[in-house]
Amino acid sequence: MMTAYVVLKRLPWRRARPARASRSRRRRHCVRTTEGVRSVERGGDERRVAVRERLLNGLLVHSASNYAVLLANMVAGNVTDFVALMNAAARNLGMRGTSYADVSGFQ
Questions:
Q1: Do residues 19 and 43 touch, judged by C-beta distance below 8 A?
Q2: Burial track 80-106 (b if 16+ CB lie within 10 A, e otherwise)
Q3: CA nearest 11: which of 48, 58, 43?
Q4: What number is the average pLDDT over the span 48-72?
């Protein structure tokens, strides 16, 4: 839950307007995911928000700790810095006896 809390506080979630460019004019690139490498459209803010929503959904509904790692990298650039953000958020919420060692919150 703390992973989701920090992600929601740190990332912009406002949906952008749909892109006006035709699908054929959009550039494609390869992205490495937990399931392997796949080609996706480079589509701006709307695309990024959709990916973030899917990752957050997987994190919360399916308890996918691998999604927690992906979201941590999106927010802080690496897992270590994200864990520091989680611990800072816990302190700010008055959770004095809580300490996180990884982004999944299991350790």
A1: yes
A2: eebbebbbebbeeeeeeeeebebbbbe
A3: 48
A4: 84
- Sign of the CA dihedral with 15 first, then 72, 38, and 25 last: positive
Work out the end-to-end distance of the chain between its first and last CA atoms, rounded to an integer number of angstroms: 14
Handedness of CA 73, 106, 93, 49 (dihedral sign): positive
CA distance 95 to 6: 14
Q: Which of 93, 58, 78, 82 lies closest to 7, judged by CA? A: 82
Residues in the chain: 107
* pLDDT for 25 beyond 60: no
